[in-house]
Write a structure and sequence with these properties.
This protein is of the alpha+beta class and 38 residues long. It has one domain. The chain is built from one helix and two strands. It has a two-stranded parallel ribbon. The radius of gyration is 9 Å and the shape is globular. The relative contact order is 0.27.
């Protein structure tokens, strides 16, 4: 699954910070080093 433009921006920012994304979007589960929480 590919991230859309905006999700990719959120993932990039999360990787620069702490690697945590607060979201219900399961697309982030496919990104290495990202932890999705809700």
């Amino acid at each position: 699954m590919r991230l859309d433009y905006f999700d990719a921006g959120v993932a990039a920012e999360a990787l620069q910070l702490d690697g945590i994304v607060i979201s219900t979007d399961e697309a982030f589960d496919k990104v290495s080093h990202i932890k999705r929480s809700w």
